[in-house]
């Protein structure tokens, strides 16, 4: 058969539109839609005794894709494998290669950091062989995670409840969160005081200064009594300017974004969760339709830990800065930032692919989220090549005999890079320091007021997504492709919760962490996890053997596992919480146990007595509060039965009245008048239906939320989960959708394997 066209195989179908525009008619472009092979879902899939040989299987739904790729390979002149330029992409390329090499041996690995015509053509021209060292590094990571997950998770099932799982890296992130919360809860505030003087110059200009030293020693004021004594002693002293210092401070711009800093900044500035940031960034990288220009890749590759920038991009940025802002905003030399030793230097930082596509010019083609994130990336990149910001710092030392006060001010004299980019603080912007009046040494000052202020030391702040990612990066835990997945996983497992951006461990998370840290201290350990990342990096560089790394891990791990397996019963008893509740069937004390749906009360005399009671959430308790029994007027209690939650009279067994548990949301069927209640099918699946059933047959599998639809005015939305969009709120009537700020799209299949 005549092989006329070359074939390019990428991961994402979105990329095919952009690539077709660059490559023309003589090229065929197919997409694998992520990984095509993986370890099996329902068994270990690793022959440990045979040097950890993996048992790869075709991922469900990928059989037809593989068939199509093989058919395309038969017709192709040459095949270029072009998944993303990282270890996951290399593994995807390898699995595709094994499927097509016998059909057509003309197979090459092409990679490009950005989806622009120049980069794509250069990547194809420079195409070579698959880097097996990267493949082995990805394989080692996958097997490590599989060994930990499949060996430790059953222990959690047997000691806490079924359905739980442990992860090699995610569990260490959970440990950091739990330990931070312990620090916060165990923190004992220390009282201290400051004394501020309100002073006046001869020209009647006022300013504030703080007490700094007494007898040339740093002052420490631990009590109100000491503060009062100092105020009494200072108030009659003569205040005089001792020294005035003015210095120029230069503030340098930040490097362009890498994966971690983009996620952190998007969290602070845009309130984006890390998954949402990566989802939107992936769209910008793969290509967005820009009217007549077609699909255009707007930013470079988004999974990177290198701040390197191509010389062409630097020169383009410098030309743009001089043209748009003037020569004062352009430094004499291009800026180059220090690259960490662990960074993959072949990658670039995240930057716009072309400065022709300014945020203002293409805003009409972008979604709201795309526009926000693109503006951030654009500004940070340009700012990285701009001049320093200049400040004049003034400090004034003021003496009142043995007491030294100090006042300071900061004035921005040249904004430089800050013209387009300013640092976003985790707790909001810093307050501006007041401008000081003109003073010189020897000037006398009038004391108008002395104010003692009480303060208390503060505990370390609870983690946010931004600070957690920063902590993971600083400790060498995870890699650019894994940060979003780490946070997403422990949220999905309900090991942590988010409140006003802050992350807290749940009771379940604390319990899981307690078992893992106590029983596997060497595995779920920050230093061990960071060292393992370094070992994986060495495999990728060809400096270490992947089988040896796995053996060095598995031998002590399996010994620990065998020991812990014998302690299951003891562990189970240790995590049960004692209560003051008495079993109403046998009189024994009840204990708190875990199930897949959370905590519940169980009789301690089990298995002789199998009585259980529900422990309901605060939200559900609040909904049930105030409900009265229609038969006897007694308060109704929230219960959980075979068919879901229900309300039962508190005077049971004297009064056996029950009714469905309502979400306090009206049924949407016109003229019905019922309320939506939570129910269960015979097989235990939760659904939501009308309280007027069978007269009204309204039902939905998706939990209603008491938020009205902004499009059609419907009284509630439903919560759905989509692979493409993650958790979304949708209107049943008009299908309006929105992504909650606390939720974000599902990771790509590639991210899920990372």
Keywords:
about 750 residues; globular; about 35% helix; Rossmann fold; Topoisomerase I, domain 3; about 25% strand; Topoisomerase I, domain 2; alpha+beta; four-stranded parallel sheet; 34 strands; six-stranded antiparallel barrel
Protein architecture, described:
It is a single chain. The protein contains 20 helices and 34 strands. The chain starts with a strand and ends with a helix. The protein has 754 residues and is an alpha+beta fold. The longest helix has 28 residues, at 132-159. The strands form ten sheets. Strands 9-10-16-15-12-17 form a six-stranded antiparallel beta barrel.
Helix content: 25-40%
Could you say what the CATH topology of the domain at 191-252 and 389-456 is called? Topoisomerase I, domain 3
Global Rg: 32 Å
Estimated structural class: alpha+beta
Overall body shape: globular
Quickly give the CATH architecture of the domain at 191-252 and 389-456: Distorted Sandwich
CATH class of the domain at 191-252 and 389-456, named Mainly Beta
N- and C-termini, Cα separation:
39 Å
């Amino acid at each position: 058969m005549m092989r006329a066209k070359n074939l390019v195989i990428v991961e994402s179908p979105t990329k095919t539109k952009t690539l077709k525009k660059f490559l023309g008619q003589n090229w065929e472009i197919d997409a694998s839609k992520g990984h095509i092979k993986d370890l099996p879902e329902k068994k270990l899939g690793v022959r440990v005794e045979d040097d950890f040989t993996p048992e790869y299987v075709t991922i469900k739904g990928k059989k037809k894709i593989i068939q199509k790729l093989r058919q395309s390979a038969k017709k192709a002149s040459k095949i270029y494998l072009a998944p993303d330029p990282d270890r996951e992409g290399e593994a995807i390329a390898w699995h595709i290669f094994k499927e097509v090499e016998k059909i057509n041996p003309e197979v090459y690995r092409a990679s490009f950091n950005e989806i622009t015509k120049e980069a794509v053509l250069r990547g194809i021209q420079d195409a070579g062989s698959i880097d097996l060292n990267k493949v082995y590094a990805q394989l080692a990571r996958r097997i490590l995670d599989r060994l930990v997950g499949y060996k430790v998770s059953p222990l959690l099932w047997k000691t806490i409840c079924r359905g739980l799982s442990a992860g090699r890296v995610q569990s260490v992130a959970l440990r950091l969160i739990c330990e931070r919360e312990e620090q916060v809860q165990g923190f004992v505030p220390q009282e201290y005081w400051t004394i501020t003087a309100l002073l006046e110059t001869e020209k009647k200009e006022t300013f504030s200064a703080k007490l700094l030293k007494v007898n040339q020693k740093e002052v420490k004021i631990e009590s109100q009594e000491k503060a009062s004594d100092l105020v009494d002693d200072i108030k009659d002293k003569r205040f005089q300017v001792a020294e005035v210092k003015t210095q120029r401070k230069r503030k340098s711009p930040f490097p362009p974004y890498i994966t971690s800093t983009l996620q952190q900044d998007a969290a602070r500035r845009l309130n984006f969760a890390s998954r949402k940031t990566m989802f939107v960034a992936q769209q910008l990288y793969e290509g967005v339709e820009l009217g007549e220009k077609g699909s255009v890749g707007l930013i470079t590759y988004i999974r990177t830990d290198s701040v390197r920038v191509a010389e062409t991009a630097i020169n383009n940025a410098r030309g743009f800065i001089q043209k748009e802002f003037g020569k004062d905003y352009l430094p004499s030399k291009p800026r180059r930032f220090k690259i960490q030793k662990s960074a993959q230097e072949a990658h670039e930082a995240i930057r716009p692919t072309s400065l022709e596509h300014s945020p203002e010019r293409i805003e009409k083609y972008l979604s709201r989220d795309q526009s926000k994130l693109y503006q951030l990336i654009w500004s940070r990149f340009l700012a990285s090549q701009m001049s320093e910001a200049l400040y004049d710092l003034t400090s004034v030392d003021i003496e009142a005999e043995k007491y030294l006060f100090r006042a300071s001010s900061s004035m921005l004299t040249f904004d430089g890079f800050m013209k387009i980019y300013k640092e976003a603080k985790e707790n909001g912007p810093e307050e501006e320091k007041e401008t000081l009046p003109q003073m010189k040494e020897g000037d006398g000052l009038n004391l108008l007021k002395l104010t003692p202020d009480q303060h208390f030391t503060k505990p370390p702040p609870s983690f946010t997504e931004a600070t957690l990612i920063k902590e993971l990066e600083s400790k060498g835990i995870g890699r650019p492709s894994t940060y979003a997945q780490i946070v997403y996983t422990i949220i999905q497992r309900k090991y942590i919760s988010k409140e006003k951006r802050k992350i807290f461990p749940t009771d379940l998370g604390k319990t899981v962490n307690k078992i893992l840290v106590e029983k596997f201290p060497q595995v779920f350990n920050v230093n061990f996890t960071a060292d393992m990342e370094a070992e994986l990096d060495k495999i990728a560089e060809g400096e270490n053997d992947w089988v040896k790394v796995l053996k060095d891990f598995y031998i002590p791990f399996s010994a620990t596992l065998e020991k812990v397996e014998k302690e299951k019963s003891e562990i189970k008893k240790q995590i049960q919480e004692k209560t003051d509740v008495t079993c109403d069937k046998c009189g024994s004390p009840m204990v708190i146990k875990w199930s897949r749906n959370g905590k519940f009360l169980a009789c301690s005399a089990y298995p002789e007595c199998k009585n259980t009671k529900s422990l309901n959430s605060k939200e559900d308790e609040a909904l049930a509060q105030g409900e009265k029994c229609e038969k006897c007027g007694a308060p109704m209690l929230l219960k959980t039965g075979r068919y879901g939650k229900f309300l039962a009279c508190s005077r049971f067994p004297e009064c056996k009245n029950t009714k469905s548990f309502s979400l306090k949301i009206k049924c949407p069927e016109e003229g019905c008048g019922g309320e939506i209640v939570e129910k269960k099918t015979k097989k235990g699946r939760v659904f939501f239906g009308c309280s007027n059933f069978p007269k009204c047959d309204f039902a939905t599998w998706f939990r209603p939320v008491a938020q009205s639809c902004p499009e059609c005015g419907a009284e509630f939305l439903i919560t759905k989960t989509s692979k493409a969009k993650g958790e979304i709120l949708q209107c049943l009537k008009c299908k309006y959708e929105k992504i909650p700020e606390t939720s974000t799209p599902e990771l790509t299949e590639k991210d899920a394997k990372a």
